[in-house]
Specification:
Number of strands: 2
Strand order of the largest sheet: 1-2
Shape: globular
Radius of gyration: 20 Å
Order of helices and strands: HHHHHHEEHHHHHHHH
Largest sheet: 2 strands, antiparallel
Number of domains: 1
Mean pLDDT: 88
Helix content: 55-70%
Length: 314
């Protein structure tokens, strides 16, 4: 019987290197903001930033597929809060520049997670100054302010919920509960630096928080239009429509049941979402390989930590 010859792993990596480089270039082209915010992930040497290599935050936030899908899940949830959505509706060009706004959000999360402390604190100060000018009234007359601690807590909670579920769904499902709680307790530091209060520090507290805020949520015309912007957002990549559908569907799979119900994602849509999630799972190893020299790996080198600090052990 003929012996089956296994492919040589180094040879496979060499053959896949051009494809991996192409994937990386396309991803960077999508997520890089048009403005240079001056964040240096390589210097100063030894600076651990706000969290450092021993944190759960570095592990959860180092996984690009989980973070992108989780971020989109968070955006979908955020459209359900009338006062939070009003600030975006009235004071940003999200409907005209949706991709640029998502890029800036991606940079902010990356910087507060991995950048040296000075850069992280500088960007947080910038956001606080921007928030000071964001205030007004909703369509039905409710006052809102981007400095409102309750709204800051809402935005933070939707994000950490999405990031956590993204990692568990697309990277590693069996992360110990204690590590999940450690992550929530760690990353709330950023929300508190922005002015949030009573920020959940565990999965149980996060669930209680969502239970308490759900009576304020609703799906309305602004929600519908904002979601339509996401679903038609132009991406500067090949097969942009397919890429967009995969990530949006993969993000929608992460929604809690009450979120899917409020957003009206019926049986057929949920079936398409699950297909998108399967596609992202299949593509995730290539995406991770292509982003192996991203900001997380550079930050690990900055503090002389091994790459293993960026993932939970199998």
């Amino acid at each position: 019987m003929a012996r089956c010859i296994e492919p040589d792993p180094p040879m496979v990596r060499r053959l896949l290197r051009p494809l991996s480089r192409r994937v990386r270039n396309q991803i960077v082209h999508v997520i890089r903001p048009s403005k240079d915010f001056g964040v240096d992930y390589d210097q100063p040497q030894g600076d651990p930033g706000l969290f450092g290599p021993h944190s759960a935050t570095w592990k959860f936030h180092a996984d690009f597929p989980g973070m992108m899908s989780g971020g989109l899940c968070a955006l979908m949830l955020q459209t359900l809060h009338p006062r939070a959505l009003a600030g975006v509706w009235d004071h940003s060009a999200f409907r005209e520049e949706s991709l640029e706004r998502l890029r800036r959000t991606t940079l902010f999360v990356g910087a507060t997670s991995f950048a040296p402390r000075g850069d992280a604190e500088r960007l947080i100060d910038q956001i606080n100054r921007i928030h000071a000018h964001v205030h007004g009234h909703t369509a039905d007359g409710q006052p809102y302010s981007a400095l409102d601690p309750d709204l800051l807590t809402w935005v933070h909670c939707t994000q950490v919920y999405g990031f956590l579920q993204g990692y568990l769904t697309y990277r590693k499902a069996d992360v110990p509960g204690s590590e999940q709680d450690r992550y929530l307790d760690e990353y709330r530091r950023v929300a508190e630096m922005l002015g949030a209060r009573d920020v959940p520090a565990s999965r149980a507290q996060l669930q209680d928080y969502f239970d308490s805020v759900r009576p304020e949520l609703r799906y309305d015309e602004r929600t519908r239009e904002t979601l339509a912007v996401l679903e038609s957002m132009p991406l500067p990549v090949m097969a942009a429509g397919l890429s967009r559908r995969v990530f949006l569907g993969a993000g929608a799979v992460l929604l809690p049941r009450w979120g899917r119900q409020l957003l009206g994602r019926g049986r057929r849509q949920q079936m398409l979402d699950r297909a998108a999630a399967g596609s992202l799972k299949a593509a995730a190893p290539m995406i991770r390989a292509s982003m192996s020299e991203g900001v997380a790996r550079r930050s690990a080198r900055r503090v002389h930590a091994p790459p293993e600090c960026l993932a939970f052990a199998d």
